[in-house]
Amino acid sequence: MDLSDARRQVExxxxxxxxxxxxxxxxxxxxxxxxxxxxxxVGSNSxxxxxVKKCLSFEIKCRELDIDELSGLVLEIEFPLDYPSxxxxxxxxxxxxxxxxxxxxxxxxYLESFLGCESLELIIDWLADNKxxxxxxxxxxxxxxxxxxxxxxxxxxxxxxxxHLLSGPEHKKEKAMVDTAKKSKLQGGLLWGTPGIVVVVPxxxxxxxxxxxxxxxxxxxRPDGVEAMHLSESALEExxxxxxxxxxxxxxxxxxxxxLLRTACGGDEDLxxxxxxxx
Length: 279
Known about the structure:
- The protein is of the alpha+beta class.
- 40% of the residues lie in helices and 18% in strands.
- The longest helix is centred in the first third of the chain and has 15 residues, at 3-17.
């Protein structure tokens, strides 16, 4: 190992550790080797070689850099024997205990144009500048395309769950709910029982669903929220919740039983349980 490289490695690490903001961020994982190199270069101006075969390594803990987005990221870094004069440092990104090859590759690619230079401050600056994207997979575009494809033929519906909804004219709160839905021309279906479910379907919107939830609370029937779910448009048609069936009802909610709600879910039992709020 060239003494000049050993000197530059030691000075690079020491320079960072002397800065209070980096003191706890860097942990040397080969402390005996670091101490040996440090002793060898102190007061030496020669350019000889050192009989060293092991590489200096350490970790950068991003949670100590005040970068909240990367609090679970640790960089394992190794200085090759001829770093920085003739090679780059080796980087392995570990996020929440798992190797993140994409982050490792991004940082390495960035450093390629700085061959021959010290890298640690460059790495830290790059992390700060790319904190929202450095952990993203290069396959995210494919995933996004898959998500878009999965949404084809589906409509965004809104689920309101009630502790119970009881059918019959004697149940005045429930009757008021039905009348309010008809007055506002809310489109969808209503499942009586425990739990009670209202499924709001297009062309009614999220705003319509939230307004109906507010009206329900005023009536005295409190839903547990408004949850968006994507249901198959063809399944909604088959269940009588969409298209021509809606037009014929003129804004009246479709009475449903569990079998009809299952049809609206395309026969998907997991989706049915999600709509019902059953785990």
